[in-house]
Specification:
The chain is built from 16 helices and 28 strands. By secondary structure, it is α+β, with helices and mostly antiparallel strands. β5 and β6 form a beta hairpin.
């Protein structure tokens, strides 16, 4: 029983799951400080986490996961649409009735010996007409404390929900305890018994067996991307894997930019960038997800549905991203980092040497010269957005912020120039549909070549990717004022010369490219036509103070016909995957590119 809500549908739903999962008790989360402190106390006492040195990291905790549970599991992630075709060629599909049958067997008694927590959460500022309310059931206190950082969570959400509808999100770590059985620090199920499943028609999420990140914090990838992308298609808006930043020029004019990049392209770094060009300022709305809807004025407005950052820790430093470093000065949950003898944390490239005696994420003691892996490469910090020094004053504005430009990009050592602009919305959609990163076979066990990650949504699109392309085209067609659509650009910070040297310094210097993007939106920068789109004039990007030759810039902006002809062949291969779901408009864009290269 709960006094927190009278929503009968919600109460019935919780009761049904409690009957199936058979927890020892049910706790409705109110989201209070007191509740949060109590949960951490319980977890510290149980040995699930360590409280960090309060003088160094106030109100912060470190957890280590089971070695089988360190990241999202794409091969255990399923889109269970009624028709296989609706999941499309880029998703794992499973029949919804079959999947529910399989999972119900697993959920039976899965919370024995544990508490069932009910987490009411809002993705987006409470009460925003772009926001959505979800309820997550979980048996993990780690999930509860993370969700309190990553979402607006607790009683206030139930107050806004009233007797309205919510997105049901079911989660269990899948590790029941027999009577008297001692718990482990990180309960979870073996890899082949983990299931991250989505039911797009009924907008439900069922997750089993993993306690880590996107597998378990169901508001993030599962709701705000996979399920929201389906809702967005039905309702005429966009749910995207994009950061959102505000950029102000030296004259005080401000614009907002959204940007999509595949993993490992520095999205959080770009979202929190400190410009190296004088007088410019960047502020952060979000680092991972953007929900965008047309306002009454015909402009596209974006909100960040999240309230925190679930950032990759390794390589985050005072040098690469001081704003992220300071976001996790306090009130932070660390997962799979090293624990130093003085109660602080450590990861690779944090900016100082690893102290002797640091305990690595697998419990091994590090001493200088030893080969102990101190932090896992996917170690994370969960930090409050409000603690970010460059958080934008409008980050919680329920109306969202108007988006002037959308950037796409990937890691492309050759072929793709530093920046180029789409001629129009359809051409920009084409740009988004072909992004990807070049991978070496050794890096992540994939075939070498360009791994296409359309719109950076490959693991996150909740329906057929071909239909998703079509939805983007439709958004352009239905815009009431085409002139108000965001301008679309492709950027590539990762271009190398023939000797393998990076041609572009990246990080804060990416502000130089953002400034050109800004000026294009402001109508104050020229561009030159090329077969692939609009390029900056050779001297348009400010390189003052950089150790770069004019030739480097020439190289960075070069469009090599031969390489682009080879690229066209690769795009044809990529598009072929989508068969008759590929929108005609994109086939036309490819034909236009081919013709322009001829
Ligand atoms: C993330 C991801 O963790 O995109 O944000 O993988
Ligand atoms: Mn992401």
């Amino acid at each position: 029983m709960t006094t927190l809500t009278k929503n009968q549908k919600l109460i019935n739903w919780v009761n049904e799951w409690a009957t199936i999962c058979q927890p020892d008790s049910v706790h409705w989360c109110d989201g209070s400080e007191e509740e949060n402190d109590r949960l951490f106390d319980i977890m510290v006492k149980a040995g699930a986490c360590v409280k960090l040195n309060d003088k160094k990291r106030p109100n912060s905790y470190a957890f280590n996961s089971d070695p089988s549970d360190v990241a999202r599991v794409e091969n255990r992630t399923f889109i269970c649409s009624e028709k296989e075709e609706d999941a499309g060629p880029t998703n794992n599909w499973a029949d919804p009735a079959e999947m529910k049958k399989t999972l119900l067997e697993k959920y039976k008694g899965c919370m024995k010996g544990r508490t069932m927590y009910i987490i009411p959460f809002s993705m987006g500022p409470l009460g925003s007409n772009i926001a959505k309310i979800g309820i997550e059931i979980t048996d993990s206190a780690y999930v509860v404390t993370n969700m309190r950082i990553m979402t607006r969570m607790g009683k206030a959400v139930l107050d806004v929900l009233g007797d309205g509808d919510f997105i049901p999100c079911m989660h269990s770590v899948g590790a029941p305890l027999a009577a008297g059985q001692k718990d482990v620090a990180w309960p979870c199920a073996p890899i082949e018994q983990k299931y991250i499943t989505h039911f797009p028609e009924t907008k439900e999420i069922w997750s089993f067996g993993s306690g880590y990140g996107g597998n378990a914090l169901l508001g993030k990838k599962c709701l705000a991307l996979r399920i929201a992308s389906v809702a967005a298609k039905e309702e005429g808006w966009l749910a995207e894997h994009m950061l959102i930043l505000g950029i102000t020029n030296p004259q005080g004019v401000k614009k907002y930019v959204a940007a999509a990049f595949p993993s490992a392209c520095g999205k959080t770094n770009l979202a929190m960038l400190i410009p190296t060009i004088p007088g410019w300022k960047v502020e952060t709305i979000g680092d991972d997800i953007a929900w965008m809807k047309f306002g009454k004025d015909g402009q596209l407005y974006a909100i960040n549905p999240e309230a925190g950052f679930f950032g990759v820790a390794p390589y985050t430093s005072e040098h690469t991203n001081p704003n992220a470093m300071h976001s996790c000065d306090k009130d932070t949950i660390y997962t799979n980092v090293g624990l130093t003898p003085d109660g602080d944390i450590w990861w690779d490239e944090i900016g100082w040497d690893c102290p002797d005696g640091t305990i690595g994420w697998k419990g091994e003691k590090y001493t200088k010269g030893s080969d102990v892996q101190v932090a896992h490469p996917n170690a994370r910090f969960t930090a409050k957005a409000e603690n970010c020094p460059c958080i934008d004053p409008k980050w919680e504005d329920p109306a969202g912020v108007p988006i002037s430009a959308i950037l796409f990009g990937g890691r492309r050592p050759s072929t793709v120039p530093l920046v180029y602009q789409a001629r129009d919305w359809n051409h920009g959609t084409f740009m988004g549909s072909i992004i990807g990163s070049e991978v070496t076979a050794a890096a992540i066990g994939l075939a070498a070549g360009v791994r296409r990650d359309p719109f950076a949504m490959l693991p996150f699109c909740g329906y057929n990717m071909g239909d998703y392309f079509g939805h983007w085209i439709k958004i352009g067609e239905t815009a009431t004022d085409k002139n108000k659509l965001p301008k679309i650009f492709n950027v590539n910070w990762f271009r190398k010369d023939e000797s393998g040297r990076w041609l572009w310094p990246g990080f804060g210097d990416n502000s130089r490219v953002l400034a050109w993007v800004f000026d294009r939106c402001n109508g104050t920068a020229d561009a030159v036509e090329s077969p692939i789109g609009l390029l900056p004039k050779e001297d348009a990007i400010n390189i003052e103070g950089l150790k770069m030759s004019a030739n480097d810039m020439k190289e960075l902006l070069k469009v090599d016909k031969k390489l682009w002809e080879a690229e066209v062949a690769l795009i044809e291969e990529h598009f072929a995957r989508f068969g008759n779901k590929l929108p005609k408009a994109l086939a036309n864009e490819l034909a236009t590119l081919k013709a322009k290269l001829a």
